Amino acid sequence: MSQTAASTYKGNDKLLYGIILGVLAFWLFAQTTLNIAPAMAEDLGVEQSLMNSAVAITALFSGIFIVVVGGLADRIGRVKTVMWGFVFSIIGNLLVGLAPEGALGGTFLMGGRIFQGLSGAFIMPASLALVKAYWEGAGRQRAISLWSMGSWGGSGFAALFGGLMAQNVGWRWIFFIAAAVSVVGMLMVRGTPESKAEVEGKYKLDIKGIVTFMITMVSLQVLATQGSQFGWTSPQSLGLLAIAAVFGLIFFKVESSNPNAFVQFRLFRNSTYTGATISNLLLNATAGIIIVAMLVLQQGGGITAQEAGLLTLGYAISILAFIRVGEKLLQRFGPRKPMLWGCFIVGMTIVLLMPTHLMLDNYKILSVISFTLFGVGLAFYATPSTDAALSNLPPDQAGAGAGIYKMASSMGASFGVAIAASVYTAISGSNEGVAWIEGVITFVGNQENLAYREAAFFAQLTMLVLLVIAVFSITLTIPKGKPADRG
Question: Can you name the CATH fold of 1-193?
């Protein structure tokens, strides 16, 4: 279509729901692995450590490329970028769904999960840019709300949906359906006039920055997920740490002197933005509590993925119910208080998930309460944090700042899942567990699953430590009072 046609085009529900299907393919279908990982690992005959890597790598690749693709979409076209995202989603879901048993299955699984991550990186920033371009006023607010419900709601229902599907029709059908949903979304978006940003000068892709950043992050991810299996002081682990350190330094040097860098370090001169971004990364890292709870309930408690997923229903409901409350709290108190309140509520969530020494029925009750609180805490935090991150940035840095902030979300979730799962797997894989903790805490009931229960306790404790650091980052950097009060 012509540029004139694109400039007069108004977004409609066909386009909006097509975009939302793309968002759901990532946030609902791809995230089911947080619950069904044990069943997938058993069926494919892969080690749990490899499965942990597969769970975490999707968010990792989404986080690595989301900033780059967001800028690229402005140049080559947002509709084209969304369509490529659908293609990657179809490829990724089919690879996972068709993964054979054995070593080749692990290759299919990892490849598919990487494509799913790339799909999220392509669809999320480009689809939001389309919402901004093709909707205005109240229509845009409605479109953003529905888009947000697709992402937040999708992630909230992922564990429940995954458990129901795995128990009743088989986990592979999750990914076959996801591929079909992506095809439908693609057809709904097809024919939309192209939207591009009006930018001057030739776009220069930051190849050096992307490559060095990717090597650094992948090295850290492999270290986090496989370190316990390699041995933390083994040549493999030390080599990965060295690679991450060397390429991390190269990345910093390259990006610091590159005007086209995809990560603009000058943004971090704003302490409020820095604190909000760091706390965003760390709070998203607490997503690790989900995989740990699902693992210990299934492996230690012997319940099915469906039963475990049902315990998370309160998470989905509360995050949708309270997401607008965070907005109202921001308007009344400014960002600092609701961000801290959200963190404290998430802290309560983790504390309630730590008593794995209790009987299974009591722990299931705590899990229901915990996941409901988890949704409330994240809902309180989300909008105030985003506002704190972006409100003080100059207009010419808003796009880059938003991209890095969103990257922190994906990277935080990726490393949180990797770290929590790694701690859990390392301890649960030892027949002895952590012997000294049994002299401090009395584990009642079945004594044959002690290693799983002790592993979950220490994995959740690790998540609590990350949350405490997030609280400190907010306390030290986010100003008190409302934005207007801070003039």
Answer: Growth Hormone; Chain: A; (1.20.1250)
